[in-house]
Amino acid sequence: MLDGIMIRNSQRALYENPMLWQQSPPQTVVERIRLTIDAVPDDVNTILEVGSGNGLLIKSLRDSGYDPVASDISSNALKHIHTRKRVQAEASNLPFPTDSFDLIFACELLEHIPVPIFSRVLDELARVSQKYIIITTPYQEKLSWSNARCPACGCIFNGAYHIRSFMENNIKSLFKEFKCISLREIVSILHPDRTIGFELFIRHQLASEYLYFAPSVTCPLCFSPVDKPPRRNWIGWAASGIRYLYRIFSREKTPLWYLAVFKRL
């Protein structure tokens, strides 16, 4: 809850960080976008994406013959998007009339929404959709996987700014006036950048080591950059050995995302 409150109070500044929107997508993201567009129903003409980011999905939709509208809270994100209409707006207060679009996309959005406005965001997505809503969200994410620690103030937070994780049961019940007509696990890979609980305990509790860092990561409390790896001691190296052994013996692929399609009742 603390992380959610901090990010709600500072999310405009966080998402205005230009470094956040200048990263090239990995192949797994490209594949997720392809599968997402394949899920668009045949009777869709008008599309809005809420939380467009740097416009990867918007570009692919345009390449597929659609004319989508992009919406995002970040003006810097919208600078990367080339489409007929771009709107800077919060997901909790969309400036569109009721039933404005056949389809609403909310991809990699809901896990970022702070607790106090989460229900309002769901209501807004449902309000402006006449027919469908499509969402993607990380697959059964453990938020502690992506914890970062600010070197300036010591704040520990989710480096991806995720507030919640999703499983099948809480996805299907998201929208009151919509039925989930499709729910898939997509883009399965071997050895995703995840870990086991024992290794995480060693890293966080014994080594004080939080591995999430990137040029785009900013502390939500003091806005200091978290762009360098932590200093590692022998305990951290031991934790790395545990991960290495885990990856040798574990050969099971894991999906990275859920893809859900909802239809208005």
Give the arrangement of secondary structure elements.
Blueprint: H1 2-15, H2 27-38, E1 47-50, H3 56-63, E2 69-72, H4 75-78, E3 85-88, E4 101-107, H5 118-128, E5 129-138, E6 147-149, E7 156-158, H6 168-172, E8 178-190, H7 197-206, H8 234-249, E9 253-264
Parallel strand pairs: 1-2, 1-4, 2-3, 4-5
Antiparallel strand pairs: 5-9, 6-7, 8-9
Supply the CATH architecture. 3-Layer(aba) Sandwich
Q: What number is the mean pLDDT?
A: 89
Shape: globular
Helix content: 25-40%
* CATH class value: Alpha Beta
How large is the radius of gyration?
A: 19 Å
Question: Which features does this protein show?
Answer:
265 residues, alpha/beta, Rossmann fold, 7-stranded mixed sheet, two-stranded antiparallel ribbon, 8 helices, 9 strands, 30% helix, disordered N terminus
Task: Give your account of this protein's structure.
This protein is an alpha/beta fold. Helices cover 30% and strands 23% of the residues. It has one domain: Vaccinia Virus protein VP39 (Rossmann fold). Strands 3-2-1-4-5-9-8 form a 7-stranded mixed β-sheet. A two-stranded antiparallel ribbon has the order 6-7. A hairpin with a 6-residue loop joins β6 (147-149) and β7 (156-158). The two termini are 33 Å apart.
